[in-house]
Amino acid sequence: MEAIEYITKENPEFAENCVEFVIAHIIDKAPRVKWEACRIIGNVAQKLPDKVKEAIPKLLENAKNKGTVTRGSTAFALTEIAKSNQDVQRELIPAFKEIRLLVKYGCRYL
Asked: Could you tell me which of 9, 36, 7, 12 has the C-alpha nearest to residue 24?
């Protein structure tokens, strides 16, 4: 997963044939796998906007994770998805507001 994340920073099209695999691992048990999968989704969001929107339910689930790196990587992925797709952006605004309020009032996770 780490190698795919590294490659997709510069070459997001590399992940075109493995997006489903990456999405399946967003809620993996291993924290490192979760955050690398989220980073990959963020890296490829602009090139593959229709494919990555399938990751949104799992990313929103990860927003509840106790791990700060996982939550940060999740925020990156959700933000990149929203930036690349205005229809999805409208759907995500309520979730962003909820996450922002929870962070503002000191809640560690949803």
From this structure: 36
Q: For 106, left (φ over 0), alpha (ψ -120 to 50), or beta?
A: left
Residue type, 21: F
- Count of CB atoms situated within 10 Å of the CB of 27: 16
Domains recognised in the chain with CATH numbers = 2-104 (1.25.10.10)
Specify the pTM: 0.88
Spatial separation of the C-alpha atoms in residues 51 and 7, rounded to whole Å = 18
Q: How confident is the model over 3-22, as pLDDT tens digits?
A: 999 999 999 999 999 999 99
Nearest in space to 46 (alpha carbons), one of 91, 84, 77: 84
Which residues, at least 6 apart from 6, have a Cβ–Cβ distance to it below 8 Å?
A: none
pLDDT digits (tens, 9 = 90+) for 30-59: 999 999 999 999 999 999 999 999 999 999
